[in-house]
């Protein structure tokens, strides 16, 4: 039987997340953010929309930033798999274009932009975002490490730093609402990075 606005609140089971309740809360959080904007986002509004108790939400997510980060994780549509095409240029191109496309075509871009905004004024949000980005740098850095193992990239190149340069470009586009980018521009950004780290051809 479908639930209505008059349906009873969803039951939780303490600290253990109930999958149905968790999904309802994440969906409600996404909807509240997209409809009301960051200034109108609150745990109270999420609880009301999800028919969940505020204590349950705070038990599972200690802050708005933690909740929004989980929304972002669950709504990326491509839970980003870093490419391994056998060629570093194609790998980096797929990484950058895939990230921009995900932000452009789905709600994850708006959610992530809100996370970045919250991090500017909230230490807890900044800590959550910093921890997330450290993990993403480690993952994306594997692209460069794989290329180093193939002999395409200099051994002294810092893998995480190189992919952070590409991610920073993507961030700039996201935060200024310029996610539409041509293949030519993507190629130019990737080539600019590779020019500095490509291994010298054997004599």
TrEMBL record:
<dbReference type="InterPro" id="IPR001647">
    <property type="entry name" value="HTH_TetR"/>
</dbReference>
<keyword id="KW-0805">Transcription regulation</keyword>
<protein>
    <submittedName>
        <fullName>TetR/AcrR family transcriptional regulator</fullName>
    </submittedName>
</protein>
<dbReference type="Pfam" id="PF00440">
    <property type="entry name" value="TetR_N"/>
</dbReference>
<dbReference type="Pfam" id="PF16859">
    <property type="entry name" value="TetR_C_11"/>
</dbReference>
<feature type="DNA-binding region" description="H-T-H motif">
    <location>
        <begin position="42"/>
        <end position="61"/>
    </location>
</feature>
<dbReference type="InterPro" id="IPR036271">
    <property type="entry name" value="Tet_transcr_reg_TetR-rel_C_sf"/>
</dbReference>
<dbReference type="InterPro" id="IPR011075">
    <property type="entry name" value="TetR_C"/>
</dbReference>
<dbReference type="InterPro" id="IPR009057">
    <property type="entry name" value="Homeodomain-like_sf"/>
</dbReference>
<keyword id="KW-0804">Transcription</keyword>
<keyword id="KW-0238">DNA-binding</keyword>
<feature type="domain" description="HTH tetR-type">
    <location>
        <begin position="19"/>
        <end position="79"/>
    </location>
</feature>
<dbReference type="InterPro" id="IPR050109">
    <property type="entry name" value="HTH-type_TetR-like_transc_reg"/>
</dbReference>
């Amino acid at each position: 039987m479908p639930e209505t606005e008059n349906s009873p609140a969803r039951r939780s089971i303490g600290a253990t997340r109930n999958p149905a309740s968790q999904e309802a809360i994440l969906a409600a959080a996404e909807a509240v953010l997209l409809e009301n904007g960051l200034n109108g986002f609150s745990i109270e509004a999420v609880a009301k929309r999800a028919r969940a108790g505020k204590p349950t939400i705070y038990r599972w997510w200690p802050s708005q930033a933690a909740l929004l980060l989980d929304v972002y994780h669950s709504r990326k549509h491509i839970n980003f798999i870093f490419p391994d095409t056998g060629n570093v240029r194609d790998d980096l191109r797929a990484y950058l274009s895939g990230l921009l496309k995900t932000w452009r075509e789905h709600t994850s871009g708006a959610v992530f932009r809100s996370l970045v905004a919250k991090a500017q004024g909230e230490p807890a949000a900044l800590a959550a975002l910093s921890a997330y980005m450290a993990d993403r740098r480690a993952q994306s850095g594997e692209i460069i490490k794989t290329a180093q193992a193939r002999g395409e990239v200099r051994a002294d190149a810092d893998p995480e730093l190189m992919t952070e340069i590409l991610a920073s470009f993507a961030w700039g586009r996201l935060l200024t609402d310029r996610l539409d980018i041509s293949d030519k521009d993507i190629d130019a950004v990737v080539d600019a990075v590779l020019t500095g780290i490509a291994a010298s051809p054997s004599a």
